[in-house]
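Table 4 source record.
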Amino acid sequence: MSEPWDSLFESGWGSRWPPEYIVRWIMRRFGDVLDRRTIYIRDMGCGIGGILWFLAREGFNTGGCDGSPIAVKAARQMLIQDGLHAHVNHADLDALPWADGSADAVIDNLAMTHNSPEVCSAIIAEVHRVLRPGGRFFSAVFRVGTTAQTVLEKQPVQIFDFITLYDLFHDSPFRISAMFVKMAAGKVSTQQRLPMSCCPCIAQRH
């Protein structure tokens, strides 16, 4: 159901700017590619389009989807205003609107985490379908033991611990290539700066 999200987006909720940890990962992974138009990156649960804006601005072949038509409209308008291009579709995450084996990377920035474990498994299967062999799935979810757990524990959101997140991907046709979970207050034990409520996982399609 998109109604709660429609209300949020109508109130002005959402960020125009991409998270730093996603910018860093994208540029480390694909920044040296000479023709970025050959790199297909999809953002599922794109909201008002902050990540799409960054990807289009950097010259990548990009597209996104969201379950809220209000968010889709806002994302399209923002791209048009800045003279940028990306296909933005209204779609649920467990029925992604992209062709089989069409993407080099799929980004999930705190979108899948708003679904039940069963739906999360279906979403991961969809991402696997969309990715090319060797493609990467960057998924950020809410993490146990952080402010997100206190703020969101009464909301329809999954807050993952290490074992649950590992099992979710281990039981899928993906190989986990990185998982950032060892974080203490005020310090991050990886080279990336990550919000303390977030646990990114990078998985590679076989």
